[in-house]
């Protein structure tokens, strides 16, 4: 394919020493651009970080053999397994199991109030791991990313002392179990980001969907970013704050890594009428093909 002017500009920086932050709008060919960038750069080998297995599988089929494709979870899993020297056991319902164990240890008459806040506690533990919160006075050697007050302020409702104590109790036991090799999906990132491990070093790290990185993802990136960084994301689609995505995450990457900013603003997917319809929000959005239509419904249709 013939690169656009924007893609040509990015490719012209392939063999510079610059760290790049590419703002890629919907359908603007970011994967194809990264594929061309990977072939153009002499900086190898490359680590390419994506968010899910499906994207990882697609990337593996397209990237060069010199590129290692990982999800943040799979990379963290390998780092933590090496750090503990154990075969890790993955328990997706780990927090639920820990909280049920706490409930079983108290008299029956006291169990009801805990059951009433069961899911508030489980969701709180998940958010604590995404934000990098560690209970006060515990694991002082670890790298805390936020205080208890900052963690509580991030939740939909600030927890009362009862819920707060339960979150801390589950989280403290979860950390201890992670050292024994029992982890959940959140631990795959939380533990190596905050509690240590040996990170592989690559001359170039490429990161997809950088607008959705959580604080613990950012902490991992700091430990990986000893060479060049090429991060791609869409700041207009930063919609995952409810699961811990860092607000203004791309701006943080720009500041931390002193990146050169590049744009991919021409959509190959969306025709002109659809692109124009979102100019109120993204005025620099462009299109490759004319046409399309936008219909505003008066009510939801079956």
What is the rounded Rg?
22 Å
Our measurement of the CA-to-CA distance between the termini, rounded to an integer number of angstroms, reads 40 Å
| Residue-averaged pLDDT | 93
Q: What is the global morphology?
A: globular
Q: How is this fold's topology laid out?
A:
Layout: H1 5-12, E1 20-24, H2 30-40, E2 46-50, H3 53-62, E3 67-71, H4 72-84, E4 89-90, H5 94-105, H6 111-116, H7 118-131, H8 148-154, H9 161-179, E5 182-183, H10 187-194, E6 204-207, H11 215-224, E7 228-233, H12 249-257, E8 260-264, E9 266-267, H13 272-277, E10 286-287
Parallel strand pairs: 1-7, 1-8, 2-3, 2-6, 4-5, 6-7, 9-10
Helix pairs in contact: 4-10, 5-9, 7-9, 10-11
Outline the structure in words.
The chain is α/β, with parallel strands linked by helices. It is 44% helix and 13% strand. β2, α3 (53-62) and β3 (67-71) form a beta-alpha-beta unit. The chain is globular and about 70 Å long. 33% of the residues are buried. The mean pLDDT is 93.
Short structural description:
The chain has 302 residues and is an alpha/beta fold.
Structural key phrases:
two-stranded parallel ribbon, alpha/beta, 6-stranded parallel sheet, 13 helices, globular
